[in-house]
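Readers of this paper often ask what the protein records in our data store actually look like. An entry from our holdings is shown next, in its original layout:
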Amino acid sequence: MRTERNLTRLDRVFARLDREPERPAHIDVPKMSRHRVVLFTATLAFYLAIVWAVVITSWLVRLDWQVMFFRPYQQWAGIHWFVDYYVVLGQRGPTAVMVAAWLGWRSWRQHTVRPLLTLGASLLLLNITVGAAKLGMGRLGPHYATVIGSNEMGLGGDIFPSGHTANAVVTWGILAYLASTPRARRWLSAASAVTSLGVGMSTVYLGTHWLSDVLLGWAAGLLILLALPWCEPFIARAETWLFDLRDRWRARGSMAPVPVPVVLKPRPAPVEQLAPEPEPASLARAPRAPVHLHLAPGPHTARSERTPVTPAGSRRPQHPERQPRGTAAQAARPLTGG
C-alpha cells in the first residue's frame, strides 16, 4: 500500500522559498478607515501635547532632568553591554538593510514591488518629518545640557524627537503593516511595539536622549504608519510605471535589429579595359570536340557471351579487327530449318 511521505520542517521551509507562479490575489492593501483616522488624530494630538509641554518647560521637563540625574547606566551597569547591542535595532542603516532584504524576497516571490516601495515611502516620510522637527526645535541632549531645569530648546541640537525610537517604530512596524494575514499582523504588531519600546528606553538608559524625546519619537513613528494608506495610490502608480518600464525594456531587448539595405554601386572598370580589341579570326580558338562520358563503347554483353578466360590467359588470340561475338558470327552461321 502506497503512503505519502510526511513533510518535515525543513521541507516546509524550502517549499516557502519556491517562487509562486503568479502574483497572489489575496494581498490585502490597508485602507484609511474611520478607526485609523481616529487613531491618527489622537496620535497627532499626543505629539503636539508633548511638544507644547517641553516648550513651556512643564513637569515633563523636570521629569527629564530627574531621570538624567538618576543615571541608569550607573545604577544598572551590568546590562550596559547588552543595551549597547540592543540599541542597534533602532539605527536606520542596519535595520533598513535587514528589513529591505526580507521585503525584497517577498517582492520577488509574489511578483510585486509594493513591499519595497512601501518601505521606501515610509523611510522618506520619516526622514522628512523627523528631520525637520529635529532641526526646527534644536534641542540639546542630556550630555550637552547647559542650564539645569531648562528645556534646552533652540540651541542647535538635533535629538528631539528621538530618531532611534521613530526609526524602530517605522522599520519594524512596516512588517506588520505588510502582513498578509490578520494573525501575522497581530503578532508582528506586538513584536514591533516591544522592540521599539526597548530601543527608546535603551537611549534613555545610555543618557543619549531625554524621556520626552522618546515619547515624541514613538508618536512620530506611529503617525507615519497610520498615514501610509494615504500613500497607497501613489505606490500603486509607481508599481505600474515600473512594470511598464520593465516590459518596454524586455521588448526592446528581444527585438533583433533590422539590417539596413546597402545599395552597392558597380565598380568602375579601368580605362584600358573599357574597349578591348577584338582578336583576329586566325587566332580564334577552335571549338573542342564533345567529350563522351561513357567509357565502354558498344552494347552491353551478357556474362555468357564474354570471352572465356583461363589462368593462362584468353584462349583466343587478340586481334584488333575482331568484332564482338554475336554480330558477324551470327550472320555467317547457316540457317537451319526448325
About this structure: The mean pLDDT is 80. The beta strands are 309-310, 313-314.
